[in-house]
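Bench notes, afternoon.
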Amino acid sequence: MTAAYELTDEQQQKLAQALSTKLERKVSLAASSDKSLIGGAIIRTGDLVIDASVRGKLTKLADALGS
């Protein structure tokens, strides 16, 4: 997982628990930070990518406006 800012241990635990429930499997996080995301996070597991970053949303918006 890559987040715009470092997450506390408590935040990481809550996120791992929520992902475990959603994905119906045990999840352990390897977290890093990347300020270029502006805000939010990108979560990668296997072939699944959840892009909840501000940068990702701006890219999608730009693509939609360019169509």
